[in-house]
Specification:
By secondary structure, the chain is α/β, with parallel strands linked by helices. The chain has 14 helices and 17 strands. Helix content is 34%, strand content 20%. The protein is globular and about 70 Å long. Belongs to the metallo-dependent hydrolases superfamily. ATZ/TRZ family.
Length: 459
């Protein structure tokens, strides 16, 4: 694999394990999948054979973003007035949207995955976790296989969350029968995917997470068996927690969701939950004590959250925090870069009502990088330092958009926001996006194929 020397970077966000800092006017060298060196005037005479030299004058170089919660398939149900949250109750919305989900085909799942990952790459995301819990019976069981195919096409580092729903609507779930699986079906396919795709080695591009959709839509045994499989195979666990379901779980099981999951063993350093906006401080402390992490999805808060997630408390209690886009049904884009800005601004909006101070802007960048890596159980991504994966993105700041901002690269994304695609995105040492184009791919053809697949869906 070719290496790259980025010469004369205006700023590189470096983190050698003691927190991010800014290195000004330095070169950055990659070699194969790894970042080899960051320093001034790296000698051209000692470069590995085949190294490509790029002028990076004016570039701010950041670690690649790590998405920790999404539903790629929902890209095919975004920006629809008939599904507008502001005009429907949650129950009405679910009753309308799940029948649409149940009509998606295998090709829809593939092309929606290409769509979501392409947008993420354009905006600096280099590792994507997707929570794929929608398995219509007619679409078959190879939906996540097709997601890995899409990730390979784009060069995305991909963690597949194999989700599923087992509780019938007649017993209190929100899931149509056409999307139900048995616990045995779900666990068997999780095991198949782990055996087929999961790579726990350094710089792994493919991993699998056991991720039953949420406690309200699954039998107790589904979570028990998920824990057993994940711990046996050494993979991560994930589910939705704390997005309004706790009173339902309490009515069914005599305890709220955090305690219910903990009782089942679905908690710990190998486990992370999505959302958690309704949780009490005591519940957050319990999660911190167990090592359970949280993927904060800020943009759906505007639409579906009853309150703004208490990130200051989570930070104060020592929870591991990552960021996620969430599905396009409750966030109509797949732009994790934008989520950094949204997350920070939301916390500023509610600062006067909180017991703890809003974390620094830099912390929000860390949630989307090293924080996300921690949730996914990765120690080789999320930071720029020699020996880490060469996952990064670059922004040419020699534009009017950045006048007056360039003195503080660490706060730039959270406070100012980045309103355009990156100038370069690199994953595992390979440039996958530069100068407005996907390397080796025809975006117009990808667009046409996705639109054709979308046209097959009946709304």
């Amino acid at each position: 694999m070719t290496g790259y020397l980025l010469k004369n970077c205006a700023a590189v966000i470096v983190d050698e394990g003691k927190g991010p800092s800014v290195r000004r006017n330095v070169d950055l060298l990659t070699n194969g999948p790894a970042l080899q060196a960051i320093g001034e005037n790296l000698s051209l005479s000692v470069l590995p054979e085949g190294t490509v030299v790029r002028d990076a004058s004016g570039w701010f170089v950041y670690p690649g973003l790590v998405n920790t919660h999404h539903h790629f398939f929902q890209c095919f149900v975004r920006n629809r007035a008939d599904l507008d949250w502001t005009k429907l109750s949650v129950i009405e919305w679910l009753d309308r949207i799940y029948p649409i989900f149940s009509r998606l085909t295998e090709d829809c799942f593939y092309h929606s995955s290409v769509t979501a990952m392409a947008e993420m790459i354009k905006h600096g995301c280099t590792t994507a976790f997707d929570h794929q819990y929608c398995f219509p019976r007619h679409a078959g069981k190879r939906l996540i296989d097709r997601q890995f195919e899409a990730a390979d096409l784009l060069g995305m580092r991909f963690h597949a969350g194999r989700g599923g729903n087992t509780l019938p609507k007649s017993e209190g779930s929100t899931i149509p029968d056409a999307m139900l699986e048995t616990t045995d079906e779900f666990i068997a396919d999780c095991a198949r995917l782990i055996d087929s795709y999961h790579d726990a080695g350094p710089f792994s591009m493919r991993q699998v997470v056991v991720a039953p959709c949420q406690p309200v839509n699954c039998y107790r045994e589904t979570f028990v068996e998920s824990v057993a499989l994940a711990r046996d195979r050494g993979v991560q666990l994930h589910t939705h927690v704390g997005e309004g379901e706790s009173p339902v779980i309490e009515a069914r099981h005599g305890m709220r969701t955090v305690d219910y999951c903990a009782e089942l063993g679905f908690a710990g350093p190998d486990t992370f939950y999505a959302h958690c906006w309704e949780l009490t401080h005591d519940e957050l402390r319990k999660m911190a004590a167990s090592g359970t992490g949280v993927s904060h999805c800020p943009e759906p808060v505007y639409l579906v959250g009853a309150e703004v997630t208490d990130i200051p408390a989570m930070q104060a209690f020592g929870l591991r925090i990552g960021l996620g886009c969430d599905g396009a049904a409750s966030n109509d884009n797949s732009n994790l870069m934008h989520c950094i800005h949204s997350a920070y601004m939301l916390q500023c909006l509610t600062a006067s009502t909180r017991a703890h101070a809003v974390p620094a802007p830099l912390d929000f960048l860390q949630y989307a990088t090293s924080g996300g890596a921690s949730l996914l159980g990765r120690t080789d991504i999320g930071r720029l330092a020699p020996g880490m994966a060469a996952d990064l993105f670059a922004i040419d700041t020699r534009r009017m958009d950045y006048v007056g901002t360039r003195h503080d690269p660490l706060s730039l994304i959270a406070k100012v926001g980045i309103g355009m695609p990156t100038d370069l995105t690199m994953i595992n040492g390979r440039i996958v996006w530069q100068n407005g184009e996907f390397t080796g791919l025809d975006e117009a053809a990808l667009f046409a194929a996705a639109e054709a697949a979308l046209a097959t869906v009946e709304f």
